[in-house]
Amino acid sequence: MLLTRLRPLVKVHLQRIACSSPRQISVITAKMAKPQYLTGDKAGIEAFIDKFDTFLFDCDGVLWSGDQLFHNVPQTIDMLRKKGKQLVFVTNNSTKSRSDYKKKFDKVGITASEEEVFGSSYSAAIYISRIMKLQAPKNKVFVLGESGMEQELQSENIPYCGGTDPAFRRDMTEDDFKGIADGSGLDPDVAVVLTGLDFHPSYYKYSLGFAYVRKGAKFLATNIDSTLPNQGSLYPGAGSISAPLVSAVGRDPLSLGKPSQAMMDAVEGKFKFDRKKACMIGDRLNTDIEFGISGGLGGTLAVLTGVSKKEDFLAEGASVVPSAYVDQLGDLLG
Known about the structure:
alpha/beta; Rossmann fold; 5-stranded parallel beta sheet; elongated; disordered N terminus; metal-binding; 4-nitrophenylphosphatase
């Protein structure tokens, strides 16, 4: 069972990172060789692909930007499958559940199954249900986020409040101030505050989340990405949503998305691959590439269709450097 396989792997690493945030992770590459530029290098591409049995993909900024599918992505995925490669889609986008991603894959013509998707919302739900093991009635999660988080919590039978409920998407009233102050406006069963990307943040939600954490609720985040790539541009990410609570609470949440190694351990526990024969493909250095390097993967591949630019890792003294890079994922077709 997945539960049995995940528990020992995840628990050790969650204990290891609980005292520090991803921002406190040590410098990743002190003395790393210059990354290999693969675009247009057919022999180099073939040799690079042949080194790995498993490829972990970020989605936003790698496969697509919003509804814009990048050139030759479906063909690249099909090529890797024909070569017998194991593919896993590891995303920090908490707004979508695994089933949501399956629908999007089908819509844009990418061959992928729901079981091949491992998202930050799913990672958080697994941690809450299978590691924290909260006992009813005090086992409810207060959500600052979208329906993808709610769906994954439901998949693990975790009760929640907040989220997309219209009752929380409103201005704060004087009665709310009074109710939070005297406790009558708080749910006594809330044991976790979980933040993710929320398109409808409000002062009311933040006030409730702050109150719950002050009363002892565990402060978790699906991920803390500062920005979100969409439609070829950048927007505030999940880290921007949790930032007000971080400021108020005075500490970071435990993040369960990339680059957290709790997520890497959970992914490895489910998909059973050799890390030295695995490659992480992503567009963001401080999440995707750091995730792969910290996890001891055999390689990392940066694509230049998302957040990070080549100047970020080619600069002297760059702290996170991929093994190789391409202009776009489709360049792997050679």
